[in-house]
Structure formats: structure tokens, C-alpha cells
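Table S2 (continued). Query chain:
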Amino acid sequence: MKETFRFIKHNVIVYSIFVLINSIFMTLLLVLISSFSTSFFKQEAIYTTYEGKKIYQLIDTLFEQEDMDEFREHNGIENLLQYYSELKKECTFVSIYTQPVYVQDAKNSQSIDFDTGNGYALKTIEMSQETFDFYHLRIESGNEIPWKDIKIDDTTIPVYLGSTYKKYYSIGDEISCDYYMKPVTLQIVGFLEKNSFVYYQNQVEHYLDDTIVIPFPYYLETSNKLRQEAFILSMFHGQIVSQLEAEELLSQLNRIGNITNFTSFTLLGNSSLQNQISQMSSILTSNMHLLGIVIILISVLFFIIEASIVSFLNKQRRTKNHLYDLLGMNHTSEKGFFILFTICCTTVLSTFLLRTIEVSTFSFMIMDLLWLIVLHVVLE
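Corresponding output:
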């Protein structure tokens, strides 16, 4: 051990450059591999969700007050409920809507949608279990929302928070807010994986990192008709996933409308979605190719520089090792300690360089193991 430190002290400048280059390479490689895997899995998620599917936007046309008055006079809520029920039987309906919740204080500044003057409106997105499953959303930690237990009059609602909230809240914490004209408590049951996204408002990647995910109620019975109406109209705003062309689908929706006496809706096409998916797929593929080339070039450059430094260090070590051999001394343990010490220095410096980048501990362990093997080989 003492001889190793003497050797390092004698070659401190070269050894420092050696460790610095190792650390920079390890950092760059981890970042590039992380970017490559992110692009790959994002492309897979997009293909899994959208490939071979047509997605149409369904909205109501109750824009004017006179339209709403007529809707209420002719049993609009009951008709819309029936329409919603029939629609889910015949189509894949992805119910999704943004409805801000209002709080007095916001711990996570990124989650603020707008300032109300006496509080804040937070970014939220409401969805059904079918929507959550359709977009292959997953939680990083926590428990599943009991989707089929949610009632419209619940005063405590289980929610998921986006990944940026993890700095401010823990599972089990509660947020007091106003939601659909009523004070409620949002109970945090889990956190979404980072970079979770859905298709919303013509955005293929509507990210949820700074958003609260609120489940739509499964049971819609309530004595508060205005609140029930607001919920049902929100749930009606969603996307229809179908293999049918627009004309065929619209004919099917009109048939349901004639049966249920609700015809105040319109269907929007999905041409912009397909264009966005095509462009995004092309960009992701190009990024993956570019990252692969950069990884190869950096690796080649690194090994050229590394070989020169290792060659110099080996010449210094061979002189000392030859002397140990003449004296009958064993230097194997010194070589092992040199490798271990180099690994530790490289890891510490790499950790410092990566302090602002999220890289898994598992990735670091794999890199350290590979580095141990490389050092063992090159220093033989």
C-alpha cells in the first residue's frame, strides 16, 4: 500500500490526468447511454400507444348559454350519462381533461398554472383508469389508485403526482384545495415515473412531471346537479381510439346520439397527430444513430489516450516490479490496491460530475465493474 502511494506521488501529474480522463469518459458514457436508452424507450412507447390506431377528439358543442339552458331543460344530464355509457360499450374511449385545483400555497412552483390573486391554480389532469392504462402510465413509487371506489361526493381523493413533486411531498401527504366548487383533500398515493406523457390538446407528448393526476369518479350519483353536470361534461371530453375512418365513426356516434337523445357533440380528426408521430419517430431515430456514432468515436479517442498514459505508467511500474523480483518481494497485492484505489478516485470524481444528472446506482455499479476488468487487463 505504501509503495502504491509512493508511486502515485512520484507520478502525481500523470496519475491525476489518468483519473480525470477516466472520470470524464465514464461520465460522458453514462450520459450518452442514458440518452440513447431514453430515446429508444420513448420511441417504443409511442409505437406501442399509437401504431396502427386512429385517434379522434370528441367534444361537446354546448358553447353558448342558450345551448346550456336547452340542455338542462331537456334532461341533458340523463341523456349525456346514457350516451357516455353506450359510447364506452361500443368504442375505446379515452376520457381526459384538465381541471385546475385551487390552493392557498404552492410548494412546487413548476406546478402553478396561474396566479388567482389570493392563491394559485395548480396544473392537473383528470383521467379514467382506461386512459391511464391506454397510455401505459406507471408509478415509480406508491400504491394503485382504487379507481372503482371513487365517488363524486368524496371529500378525500387519492391522486398521483408528477416526478417534480418528489422534492416537496411524500406518499400519504395531503393537499387541501377547491375542486369543482367544493373543498376537498387530495391524498398522495404515488408518484409517476419521470417523463410520463399523454396525448392531449394536439400534443403527442403532454408531459405530466409537474401535474397532479386526479381520477374521474366511478360513481356519478349525487344530489348536487351542477357539480354532477360539470363532472359529466368534463368526462365527455376525450379521445376515441378506433380503426374506423372518420365518416364511419361519425355515423356510429350519430346512431348512439339518436338513441340517447344527445346530439350536441362534434368529432375532430387526427391528421395532425399522425404527422407529429411521423416527425417525432424520424427525429428519435436520427438521435439514436447520432448518439451511437458519438459513443463509438468517444470510446476510440479515449482508448488511444488511455493506452498512451497506461503505457507510461506501466514503464514506471515495471522498473519497480523488476527491483521487487530481484529482492524476492511480492508486488501482486500492490497492483490490486492500485486498481482499487484508481476505481475509488474515478467513482468519486464521476459522482461529483454527475451530481446534477439522474443516473441510477445500478448503472454506476455496472460501470465500476467493467472499469475494474479493464484496468486489470491493461495494467497486466
